[in-house]
Amino acid sequence: MDIKIKSNLAYYNKKDKKMRYIRLLFLGILILSLTSCSFKPQIKKSKSLLVTLKTKKIAYQDTGFMKSGENYLNLQIFSLGNLIMDMTINPNGICLNSYCMDKESFNRKYLSKYYPDTLLENVLKGKPIFKGENLKEQKEGFIQRIEKKGRYSIVYKALNGKILFKDRLNKIIILIKPIKS
Questions:
Q1: How is the chain split into domains, by residue range?
Q2: φ, ψ for residue 149 (rounded to 5)?
Q3: Looking at residues 36-41, what average pLDDT do you find?
Q4: What 3-state class would DSSP assign to 168?
């Protein structure tokens, strides 16, 4: 009888350890998911803009605000005072209206699977794309013309604070103009 009680106790001790481990794991995942959503980076720059963002799956054109910080970029577009698009780019990925995915998946879904992961962020910041391929420096910025047969045909200009990205093959236009105050 003593042997049977001891073996039952050993069984329950193992089961308790597994349950404690599962609870601890669940609690850790819950805390991580709640804190990652509440992380607010420090904003270093904010500017008001006129924004056009048109792809095969999304189309927005109105006034907006771009906020940026270290490893963080947030573009919000408003229409009649209502937020109609909220895009956040950070090292982990891109969130569009609270739907988050990695940068490669975002490119595949909304832009082009042939684009590098950093393309959208660099365009919004007015930085060269495709590692500066075909970069022509201008007095007030630069122009890039990049073509790859059957994949993309890009004209990208960042001049005088105005940004124009146009891909004829993928039917994508990103136009950003600062609003003068």
A1: 1-39, 45-178
A2: -50, 125
A3: 54
A4: coil
